[in-house]
Design brief:
The protein is mainly alpha-helical. It has one domain. It is 72% helix and 0% strand.
Length: 99
Amino acid sequence: MPYIKQEDRIGLNTVIDDAIVALQDVAPDVLKRPGPTNYMITRIVAGSLKPKEGWSYHSISRAIAVLRDAATEMERRLMGPREDVVIKDNGDVPEYCEN
């Protein structure tokens, strides 16, 4: 989960807020932001997790885990509630229903 102490967020939030504005300036249309967003995320993750001596199996695995965990949390928080509405509107898959 991406939750860190409030005091640890202070310095990061300023940089993150500036990055968000920069992404919106580069690609005002949200549908055109995946490329610039992917570029920024890749640089941040690779740059912050790459050991000085170079990539190892474990550092690559850690970088991928960070990205996967962030995606999983985003899916849980944003996609889950949307899926619940659609299930309610259209009905569930029979195999997921309680008997």
